[in-house]
Write a structure and sequence with these properties.
This protein is mainly alpha-helical and 80 residues long. The protein has a domain of 43 residues. Helix content is 50%, strand content 5%. It contains 2 helices and 2 strands. It has a two-stranded antiparallel sheet with strand order 1-2. Helix 1 packs across helix 2. The longest helix is centred in the C-terminal third of the chain and has 22 residues.
């Protein structure tokens, strides 16, 4: 029986001057799920997923960076 491939991230939590990437990794996964369900994701959509407004402000860009890297690593594999 084939299992459906789920988007996911393996994030090594590097802490550099107080910046943690585990929150950005969780946020990236949530953004991808929300986009798949709703066609897009606004910062306030993440509040319903348990992220505080401060976490969204602090990690929004890093989460999108992780999404871009994930898409880059699979680029050309599924799209020819």
């Amino acid at each position: 029986m084939a299992q459906e491939k789920q988007a996911g991230f393996v994030v090594v939590d590097v802490i550099n001057e107080g910046t943690s990437f585990s929150t950005a990794g969780r946020m990236a996964a949530a953004i991808m799920e929300i986009r798949k369900k709703n066609g897009g994701c606004m910062p306030q959509d993440l509040n319903a997923r348990g992220f505080t407004p401060k976490e969204v402000v602090d990690h929004w860009d890093a989460a999108h960076f992780l999404i871009a890297i994930n898409n880059l690593s699979s680029w050309g594999k599924d799209n020819g």
